[in-house]
Amino acid sequence: MKEPSNPARVKASIWYGVIFFVAAVVLVAIALVWNTRKVALNEGEDQATRFVAGAEAALNRALLSVDVLLASLDELLDLSSSMATWVDTKTASQRLRGSARQNLMVRDVAVLDSTGKTLASSDPGGGAHTVHLPAGFLDSVLAQPLSTLTVSAPVVSFASSERVLFFARHLRMVDGTRVVAVAELPVVALSAVLVQGVDISGLQVTLERADGQLLLSVPAREDLATPTLTPPLDEVTGTNEQWQAPARLTGEAALVVYRPILYQDLRISASIPRQATLAAWREQRDAIGLTALLFVAMLVAAGWLAQRYVDQLSQARLAIARSKATLDQALESMVSGFLLLDNQNRVVQWNSHFEEIFPWLKGLVRPQMSFRDVIERGATYQVPRMDEADIARWVQQRLDKQKKPQVEPQEQVFNNGHTIQITERATPDGGLVISYNDVTAWRQASAEIENLAFYDPLTNLPNRRLLMDRMQQAIAASVRSGQYGALLFLDLDHFKTLNDTRGHEVGDMLLRQVAQRLTTCVRREDTVARLGGDEFVVMLHELSTQREEAAAYTRRVGEKILRKLNVPYTLGEYVHHSTSSIGATLMGGTMQSSIELLKQADIAMYQVKSQGRNALCFFDPQMQIAISLRAQLEVDLQAALAARQFVLHYQPQFHLDGHIVGAEGLIRWQHPERGLVAPGEFIGVAEESGLIVPMGHWVLRTACAQLAAWQGDARYEHLQLSVNVSARQFRQRDFVARVIEVLRETGARPHLLKLELTESLVLDNVDDTIAKISLLKTKGVRFSVDDFGTGYSSLAYLTRLPLDQLKIDQSFVRNLGVRHTDDVIVQTILGMAKNLELDVIAEGVETQMQRDFLARHGCVLFQGYLLGRPTPVAQLETLIATIGQAA
Question: Which band of pLDDT confidence, cut at 50, 70 and 90, is reported for residue 35?
């Protein structure tokens, strides 16, 4: 059981936690204060930017209205058509008064000549009114090459004693002289336009020239008549960092934003002092600091209370620990693992031996833990090689068994190789006592005894006793299933000589390597055993239901073993060449004695010894003859391929009207001694040995070369050639590429080539079949299903395959008119093909009655002995010419 926590450690953990949370609160408060300060500065920056943009637009509108007013005086007073002496002062002054009233900001409008004399004025004094312009202002207006609006420095008005600005532009009279139109605007009115009622704490607004000359400001600066602010705005915003520039009026650290306006390099600036912007933030900062301090105080108080609680809890645990000390000592003294569950299947008690047996549960098991959780946590170790669903079922079965405690112990083998014996007993209160005993050592001892009894200690292969037992089981299974097996008795040649010359240690090394090589030559279900000395036995299971095929497979395995054992052995520093003699016998069909089978294989092996060693011999003489003939046929086929002994015969395919539409290419073997060999005698061996692949490729290339040879000859260029494709050839990964390569190299037209696939081939891996057919169809190659109707699911795949033709199997054609079911099948195939728009050709047509029946039900293509037998290409061409002349 897990020991109670150390009180000092718990109290230290509490204060570590308090310190952690206090630090977290402080950091959060600092981050919050910093963030609110940043937000305040960002808001101040946004306010300044928005204000300057609005002030610029408002001031531009105001100055534009003044500019329009002054420019319109030319038309109003008809100055461009008059001279200065012609101006009617009274009339002109009245017009000026009317025009000035339309602009509320303008206090007075006047027209002055080049000497400053008033020609007309909106003032009640009219022409007698004197306009007091700043010194040099009139000359600066007249010096403008073009008539543009010019703004004076601020001055104090003689009439109202307030600060005003003069706006002026020169106008040209009929005699070329210039007069100046002047408008007087109070600074207060322009200040109102600039501020626009905006209330920004600490805001300082200026209208100044590019060189820093101040025209007006909010709040007003009246301490100087025409103050010049330094440095100029361009230098302020170009060199100082944000919120570090000097405010334009007070010089304190501030954010300064400015914009130029439409007239005479004038600038509008807004300065917001940093202190004013952060005033509200300081209140937030104090509130955050106070709140953080309150949280810190609460955390410290909580830590103190938790410490008090831990002190009280440790005293209670100490009392409980003392009362259970005796019981714990008794549990720990148990040799077995111990687990006590209450009546709700929860963990109450366990001992250290339990955790030693289940080390993956160490530190995870706790009191009141559900026993289901205990099982689930260790399920992956207790139930090897099972997925989550299987583990969930195993857990439920384990709990179901627990509902009925077993007196007899149960055993489980874990992933770590340990075997645990489990005993369960109920307690009076409905709980359960489970004891666990590790019986691994006892089981290993038993396994070692069994291994010594049934396995060879040198090679770790089954020994004679285990082999005999497995042979009896294999013989019984063979009788039930009808599958033949085989027994190979193997003896190393001249092994005694190696032992005598090199010593038994080297001989043992050879035996171990032989055992390893033999194991790699057989399947997992087969058995390799050592009888003793240098004698080994290989038992092959369930090879085939055909005796000849089983014997052929046994021969191939035996030859593989001979080749494997002929490879030189490295025995320490010595390289040894060794051979072996193998005797073989088939088992199965009838109940046989394992002793008798071993004798047969042993006799066959000694027959090899007597004939020169390093060979394989069957016990059955007739079987040995058949195997030898089959092996010789395979060798002859390989030689025939190399010597080009194969030829291609063509069986013509006829249309209903009697003309030849194509032919099927059929392979023949022109044997130098046996003559012409039909394919039925060698195709099976070619399929089994894999020679069918190069043979099929040869047939394909030969047929395509013949198609290319017929091109350009009107008698044959329309003929199609059909070629049979074996399953092994079609399943080659490069089949499509090789067909395309042959078409390209021979120059044959793809649409005249038809590849015939058997129905069983098509049904095997339909998706791969469809993919390969579709690729070749894009090149123009046509496809036909040979022996159609013999498969077990023809209709299921027919609509999915991109076929061109169905070939009715000759087994159906042969029974037309004889067996009613075959008649119905043929009629069904013809009707189905018509609906699917597929061509149909009937093969094996040998009688006129069969041809007439097929024609009557819609078949128009025929192939069979009635019409023509397979012939060499020259005879086929002669037949075509004869039919053409008859036509």
Answer: very high
Measured between alpha carbons, how far is 121 from 764 in angstroms, rounded to an integer?
Answer: 113
Which tokens sit at 293? 């301090």
Beta strands in 286-373 (DSSP E): 337-341, 347-350
Q: Which residues of 628-644 are buried (b: 16+ CB within 10 A; e: fewer)?
A: eebbebbebbeebeeee
The closest alpha carbon to 843, from 872, 818, 816, 814, belongs to 814
Neighbours of 524 (CB within 10 A): 5
Which tokens in the block code for residue 637?
């086929």
- What H or E segment, with its residue span, contains residue 487? strand 484-492
Residue 790 sits at φ, ψ, to 5 deg, of -90, -15
Q: In the beta sheet, which residues pair with residue 647? A: 668
Rounded Cα distance, 849 and 816, in Å:
8
The predicted model gives 516-523 an average pLDDT of 92
Which pLDDT tens digit goes with each residue over 570-582? 988 888 998 999 9
Measure CA 844 to chain center. Answer: 54
pLDDT of residue 793: 47
Write down the pLDDT at residue 624: 56
Q: Which residues contact 388 (CB under 8 A, 6 or more apart)?
A: none
- What pTM was estimated for this model as a whole? 0.42
Contact indicator for 431, 341 with CB cutoff of 8 Å:
yes
SS3 284: helix
Tokens found for residue 800:
């999915």
Nearest to 873 by CA among 719, 688, 693: 719
* 422: exposed, middle or buried (Cβ count in 10 Å: 0-12, 13-18, 19+): middle
Residue type, 562: L
Angular region, 765: left φ>0, alpha ψ -120 to 50, beta rest: left
| Residue-wise DSSP of 353-381 | HHHHH-GGGTTT--TT-BHHHHHHHTHHH
CA distances from residue 387 to 383, 393, 629, 795, 821 in whole angstroms, order as listed? 9, 10, 52, 39, 52
- Paired tokens of 797: 């795949």
Mean pLDDT of 193-221: 85
Tell me whether the omega of the peptide bond preceding residue 231 falls within 30 degrees of 0, making it cis: yes
At 350, the amino acid letter reads W
Instruction: Identify the CA nearest to 189 among candidates 168, 207, 212, 210.
Output: 207
**What one-character-per-residue DSSP string does 373-412 give?**
HHHHHTHHHHSTT--HHHHHHHHHHHHHHHTS--SS-EEE
Amino acid 543 reads L
pLDDT of 2: 44
Q: Which of 69, 179, 70, 67 is nearest to 127 (CA)?
A: 179
Q: Kindly report, residue by residue over 280-289, the tens digit of the pLDDT.
A: 888 888 999 9
The H or E element containing residue 811 is helix 810-814
